[in-house]
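note to self: dont lose this again. the chain is below, predicted strucutre after it. 159 aa total, dont forget to put it in the shared folder this time
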Amino acid sequence: MKKVEVKTEIEELMLDELNSIEQNLISRAQEISKQAYAPYSGFHVGAAVLLENGEILQSSNQENVSFPTGVCAERLVLGYAGANFPNSAPIMLAVVAQRGGEETWAGVSPCGICRQTINEVENRFQKSVTMLFLGPNGLVRRVKGISQLLPLKFDDLKS
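---
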């Protein structure tokens, strides 16, 4: 038997340590999270993506009583980016979440389906996506590339 150690590198910063572009993405994600349709979970998620052409797109989660037909904010914004800006790679993604009725931001990271979607985007454009996840008390986790969150990602139908 052989053991393989997988390491992940995640940076933790305070919101005020981010550069202006990163702060803007977090702010845009916070704004759009208020538009979430989350009557079942009460968990309002916002995502904002920066494309290499400078466009910033944003989206929120949209739930459905027929689970799992709802759509996560991350997948919704990345799908919109791919459909409407097919030649412009997403280079940075900010994700925030807030429980209904609470003032503080909840710790969040993409679900498994969203992680695989981010992987597909990276494969499509052959570029890593830097991700920012806002948590409680202004703590931001910065992750460079989906392999940091999904080390055994599914990439190839032939192997």
